[in-house]
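Researcher: Let's run the pair from yesterday's discussion. Sequence first, then tokens, for each.
Model: Starting with the first of the pair.
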Amino acid sequence: MPSFTTTTTALLAGVAGVFASPNSIAARASDAINYVQNYNGNLANFKYNEAAGTYSASWNNPGDFVIGLGWSVGSARSITYSAQYSAAGSGSYLGIYGWVNSPQAEYYVVESYGSFNPCSSGVTSLGSITASDGGSYQLCTDTRTNEPSITGTSTFTQYWAVRQTQRTSGTINMGDFFTAWAKHGFGSSYNFQVVEVEAFSGSGSASVTVGGSAAVASSSKVASSSVASTVVASSVHYTPTSSVYTAPAPTTSHSSVAVAPVSTASVSLVSVSTYIPTSTNTSFGSPTAPAGCVVKYFYA
């Protein structure tokens, strides 16, 4: 794998201190995209908008490039993405890419690929798993000896998961793969983690939107009165409508919830409730939302 020249940007000033308690809410509610992977060398016509979580690229017989948007520190987050990916004749991948510091390892969750399945040959098969969304992934590993890495030239393990029914949009629960790989020596000292496009041959193009971490669901709507509201599930967002925030039961348990009325100028946490969702326990109390404020709901 190549050496890594990356661009990182800080989170918006003040945001990191907004959700001070509990720590689990603070960590997840501030889980904004803050990392640009740009090992490119002008090979990919890479254009990105970090704030919007979007990027695009096109290539024609490139050397190896790795580009993407994500996080400076990886985690077992759930990542939502959508892409237009055209690479049928190209050696390329669309998916999640990152590194672990100790033991040093490089990892991929390949959602779609061009002409080459990286688990097809020259690797050690680890079988397959069924992910949280029902998709089947082929698992494999490979040892890279004296190859470029995030610390210079080193020897490290590559961990791969390749989706058997390819797709270009969806939600990836990284915990599924970290758990499976951990049985084969995968560590938990995470370096960066991005939704990536990589290519090393042929031609193609991609346009990608990174939806952020699905471990933090967030929505906003201007409150029309001093009454707080109910959060109703939809395919895209939660829409406040009445006096109590109600969260749909997610597919996996979450430990706690924060509700924050937000003005246009600042963000302030006004209530935190312990919340363990089940099929019947999906609501919790909340403060009133002052008229004209934006109500934001988070679960983590």
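Model: Moving on to the second of the pair.
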Amino acid sequence: MKKNSNRLRYRDAMSASPAAAHALRPLRYLYRLPMLVWHVLVHLPLTLLLMSAPFGGLRIGGDLLKHRMVRWWQAGLMRVFGFRMRQVGTPISGAVMFVANHVSWVDIVALHAFRMMGFVAKREIAGWPLVGWLATMGETIYHQRGNQESLGGVLHEMLARLRDGRAVGVFPEGRTRSGEEVGPFHARIFLAAVEAGVPVQPVALRYGERGSAQTAVAFGPDESFFANFIRLLGEPGRTADVVFLEPIAPGDAEGRRRIAETARARIVEAMGRSSEDMDALPTEPSGA
């Protein structure tokens, strides 16, 4: 683990040089654009075929084939963009609410690479090229921000899925941020987990060593999705840490506000850890 971490740190340090990053951008476009086209025109139809009946309902190792295909395609998209995925901890199975810090559209892709979950996301994402369509295929629950009636419908759908034994994923900050800090978590979204009596598993998302590339991955000022998509396609390769932290079991924290505070605190702690220290983080349920 230490040898691999040192190698990844060296790559991140090399990619952090602004001059080198700018000089090599045309070269990265030269080989990544064909990879993206291949991934969309060849891998995507294959994914859709195996997600459809009768294949999608087959179970392999206890997991539906259609869910495995979503993970496979999303992991491939991360590779196209030069991200080297690094998983810490294990996503728990069954009905669970995953909560993560929110930096970019990449967050959904990174999480889907390891676990199938229906995300709660702003309605605008449905209209984004490719990613919006994939989000819909990934069972996303869309929310109209600022609309209380919409939020009520979202909570109802989340509760129904959790009671059905499925997983949902939310970004409790409510929006993407610059990557410089983790914003406050809105407690109301945790109501579905409280009422369903399911665990909440915090997930820390870091790009670059110790999150050194958070701001590079995040949306720039007034940057559109398309502009961010194209810019990231030419960015240097970087690590993407997906850290599944210790779940908060029903009864571990009193009420939705306390759950929100606990989840945020665990994510903030993980964000400041070095790669070597990540192994010391509690990632299993207490008493497991």
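Researcher: Give me one sentence on the second I can quote.
Model: The chain has ten helices and nine strands.
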